[in-house]
Amino acid sequence: MANWVPLWLHRLGSPPVFYRFAGAVRPWALGLALVLGAVALYGGLFVAPADYQQGDAYRIIFIHVPSAWMSLFIYGAMAVAAFIGLVWRIKIAETVAMESAPVGAAFTFITLVTGSLWGKPMWGTWWTWDARLTSELVLLFIYLGVIGLYHSFEDRRQGARAASFLVLVGAVNVPIVHFSVNWWNTLHQGSTVRLLGPSHIEASMLWPLLTMMAATKLYYIASLFARARADLVASESGKGWVRDLLAGRTGNDPA
Amino acid sequence: MSHAFAMGDYGFYVWSAVAVFFIVLLIDTLAPLARRRRNLRELRARLARQENRRRPGTPPSNESDA
Predict the structure, then answer these.
(1) How far is A163 from A146, CA to CA, in rounded Å?
(2) A14-69 residue pLDDT tens
């Protein structure tokens, strides 16, 4: 690995550097996410043909599946950051872990609601206590538990440490969600898109799905960075760089 | 075109899903921006109060944006 990569990561661990970096990246990530999301929804809702069994109802897939992927992906990112924060006590890692939780909870909520909206016309029920649905609901509760635990401490870093432990313990649920459709006989269908082996989906339906996946990833970056910036100005409020920011001395963007 | 928007008989379900997606993410986008501004405002007010305690003669005009 080139020498500048660890050096750059090390510099990014400094709160003022991260704050500026996040502020510079956020608008581009959000803008690109909006463009890709619009293209993906156009492709999914209007260009792709209707499903031969589910008709137009299957089009919920273009929102439901990328959101479900994100609900697990964000948990993975949060677990890695929580682990780094616990082991090396890096403040930015703790911030990233804690500020990932609300975004993950949002995507998990979207997954559950859109799944319900898909289940009603196709299965004839809004909800069933099936392995996939139940484990995804547990995922939402874990996210909410992490958020609650973080905020229940007077001291932020103590709260982040306690909540990071919960993140690592709760990580056991992630493979359960992912493999639930294989391990148990469930109402929920199996994976359509696979990393290994051929996907069970037509190209005209696959590209909007993958475009939406990219859009949601970029959205996560934008939202995480906005949240980390809001968190840092409060948690670093005693530091000189935040004072400078308020006084407009760095010129970057006061308030 | 209205045919395309009808989504067969499933218009309600498809468009509700799209709406949920956008509403939740819109809230998720706006909330942290407001939080950052609020945090900065509170900090500015706190600094002004400290300044006031240090030099009691100053008029409390710097609390105005709290």
Answers:
(1) 5
(2) 999 999 999 999 999 999 999 999 999 999 999 998 888 888 889 999 999 999 99
A25-223: in CATH 1.20.120: yes
B41: nearest CA partner in chain A: A255
* Chain B interface with A: residues with Cβ < 8 Å: 4, 7-11, 13-14, 16-18, 20-21, 24-25, 27-29, 32-33, 35-37, 39-41, 43-44, 46-47
How far is the C-alpha of B10 from the C-alpha of B15, rounded, in Å?
A: 9
Span A104-138, pLDDT tens digits: 999 999 999 999 999 999 989 999 998 999 999 99
Do A56 and B17 lie within an 8 Å CB cutoff?
no
pLDDT in the model for residue B9: 82
Exposed / middle / buried, residue A124 (Cβ in 10 Å: 0-12, 13-18, 19+)? exposed
Q: Where are the domains of chain A?
A: 25-223
ipTM: 0.90
